[in-house]
Write a structure and sequence with these properties.
The protein has one domain. The strands form two sheets. The protein has a three-stranded antiparallel β-sheet with strand order 1-5-4, sandwiched between helices. The longest helix has 15 residues. It is of the alpha+beta class. It is globular and about 55 Å long. It is built from six helices and five strands; from the N terminus they run αβαααββααββ. α3 crosses α5.
């Protein structure tokens, strides 16, 4: 994962300096369309549970256990509403773009989604795979 384009430029320059750049090298970009509205609540909760199981070693985080975090997240996801055309709607998939917590949940989801691509990247150390939230850049020979 990268934070900005400058990180990618540095990786590309390093790639070229090591003479990995060939005439057959593919430059691939992907954009994940509408992650805020296309990932289901079940998928977000599942990957959050995986994340908590995989990376949190303490019994509690600031007094809350993993089950409490999952239940509160489920409550938040199930109680999102928005107004459109003077009518109130419930958000049944994804969440609002203005919620920092939604960005975190989507980042966790995409972290697990990208794992098969990272395994391909690790098979040949002369490839590049980077992600900046919903944009992916690959270099492949």
């Amino acid at each position: 994962t990268i934070d900005n384009g400058a990180d990618l430029i540095q990786r590309l320059e390093n790639y070229q300096e090591k003479d990995y750049l060939q005439s057959t090298t593919y430059f691939i970009t992907l954009h994940i369309k509408d992650p805020y509205t296309s990932i289901t609540h079940a998928q977000l909760l599942h990957t959050l549970k995986c994340f908590l199981d995989d990376f949190i070693r303490e019994e509690t985080i600031q007094g809350m256990n993993a089950m409490a975090i999952l239940k509160l997240t489920e409550f938040l996801l199930q109680h999102q509403y928005f107004v459109f055309d003077n009518r109130i709607y419930q958000q049944v998939c994804g969440g609002g773009t203005g919620l920092y917590f939604m960005q975190l949940l989507i980042d966790i989801y995409l972290f697990y989604w990208q794992q098969p691509l990272l395994r391909l990247d690790q098979q040949d150390q002369h490839e590049i795979f980077v992600r900046c939230f919903d944009d992916i850049f690959l270099i492949w020979n």
